Every structure is written in structure tokens, then in C-alpha cells.
Amino acid sequence: MAKRGMLIVLSGPSGVGKGTVRKAIFDQGGNDFQYSISMTTRKPREGEVNGEDYYFVSKEEFEHNIETGQMLEYAKYVDNYYGTPLKYVNETLDRGKDVFLEIEVNGALQVRKRLPEGVFVFLTPPDLMKLKQRIINRGTEDMETINKRMTKAVEEIRMMQDYDFAVVNDKVENAVESIKTIIKSERFRVERVFPEYEEMLGDK
Ligand SMILES: Nc1ncnc2c1ncn2[C@@H]1O[C@H](COP(=O)(O)OP(=O)(O)OP(=O)(O)O)[C@@H](O)[C@H]1O
Ligand SMILES: Nc1nc2c(ncn2[C@@H]2O[C@H](COP(=O)(O)O)[C@@H](O)[C@H]2O)c(=O)[nH]1
């Protein structure tokens, strides 16, 4: 049976740049991460594609998925549900592939309980003003929603200490390099990738 893949969970407040950093890591190549597409009851933004950016579903469908145990984790975040379908994550890890989740903090802490072997990285903004400016610049939310997301952000940043690693997203390229280094080092720690280590340490 293939060795189970590695689970990487990237979390942090809305607008900090999780999606930007994740896309840069994927675009640079040199890895075979599988991105887990989340499910949400939020309405699609302009340009968002069902089955690529999210699975956009009704509240009823989402609640049915919760009740039937189909979610690895889920959270109510600013008036909408967001969650990770369990089957894809399990099947992909079982195939020996690495899975990348990009989710908010309450969901990440649920994942930590179920899959504690994952690598949990918190992406944090240089400061709150810059965070707000990034959400405003993105131009996807109205001011009322931005303010709700900023209130959430303060709660979320307090939970940073529950993560294995924290990375400041000041410059995208620096955050990308830091996360790639973390992943490389965690893979080494978990898998002891050099065969001579196995021999030296007397593993079967
Ligand atoms: N280091 C950075 N410096 C300046 N702007 C940035 C940086 N990283 C991302 N941004 C910009 O900030 C905005 C929010 O980024 P992004 O959508 O990636 O955040 P997110 O954390 O994925 O948000 P959400 O959780 O709401 O999906 C985007 O307009 C992006 O271009
Ligand atoms: N707990 C989960 N949170 C998720 C998931 N997918 C995305 N998110 C987070 O929700 C907020 C808002 O996202 P937006 O697309 O409306 O800006 C943000 O922090 C996302 O990272 C998920 O599956 N589970």
C-alpha cells in the first residue's frame, strides 16, 4: 500500500493572501500537491467557477452533507457555511498524494483533531490596517462584510498559537519561500527521506 500523503493546512484571516500564496506555490511547480476544493453556501463572485474555486451549494445541501458525515470539517463564517469534503481528502491521502487545504481557523482546529499528523500553518498579515486594505483592494466584498471579516480576523489572529508555524505575508515571495521550507523540513522530519537514516535508526 502507498505511504499516506502529507496534509498541509494553510489558514489565516480572510484577505491575508492565502489564495495568492497557495497559487504561487502551485505555479512554481516542483511539488504534487492536490488542492482540496471546498464547499460553500456563499454566492459565487464574478469569475468564480463551480467545481474549481468552490462547490457552490444551497444551505439545505450543505446541512445534508453535515448530517450524513460527508464533511471533514465545516464552519459558519460570516453568514455562510464553508467546509471540506471528507471523501476527497481521505482518498487522495490514501493514494499517497499530498493534500493542501486553505481554510479558516475553526475548521483548521477540527482538522487538527481528526488528522493531527497534518502540518498546520497560520498566515498572518503584517498588521490589521494592511489586512483591511487588502480586502478593500480585492474589491469583492461590500463595506459591511469587510467590517464583519475584520472583526473575525481579530479573533482568528488570537488563535495563531494553536498552529505549528506562523508566517507573515509581507511579501508574497517571502511567504512562499517560508512555507516551502516548512513543508520540506516537515517532510524530512516525518519521512526521514534518506534511506541511510532508516538503516542508522534501525527502522524496519
Ligand atoms: N503580500 C501581499 N502584499 C500585498 N497584497 C497582497 C499580498 N498577498 C495577497 N495580496 C492581495 O490581497 C488580496 C487578498 O488576497 P487573497 O484573496 O489571496 O486572500 P485570502 O486570504 O485567500 O482571502 P479569503 O480567505 O477571503 O479567500 C488580493 O487582492 C491579493 O492580490
Ligand atoms: N472552515 C473552512 N473555511 C474555509 C473553507 N474554504 C474556504 N474557507 C475560508 O472561508 C473564509 C471566507 O472565504 P471567501 O472565499 O468567502 O473569501 C476564508 O478564510 C477562507 O479561507 C473550508 O472548506 N472550510
UniProtKB/TrEMBL annotation:
Keyword Transmembrane assigned: no
InterPro entries: GK/Ca_channel_bsu, Guanylate_kin-like_dom, Guanylate_kinase, Guanylate_kinase_CS, P-loop_NTPase
Entry annotated with the keyword Disulfide bond: no
UniProt xrefs under SMART domains: GuKc
Pfam families: Guanylate_kin
Subcellular location: Cytoplasm
GO cellular component assignments: cytosol
Any GO molecular function: ATP binding
Enzyme Commission number(s): 2.7.4.8
Residues annotated as binding ATP: 12-19
Keywords annotated in UniProt: ATP-binding, Cytoplasm, Kinase, Nucleotide-binding, Transferase
Enzyme class: transferase
Record field: catalytic activity: GMP + ATP = GDP + ADP
Guanylate kinase-like domain mapped to chain residues: 5-184
Its biological purpose: Essential for recycling GMP and indirectly, cGMP.
Protein family: Belongs to the guanylate kinase family.
HAMAP family hit by this protein: Guanylate_kinase
Record protein name field: Guanylate kinase
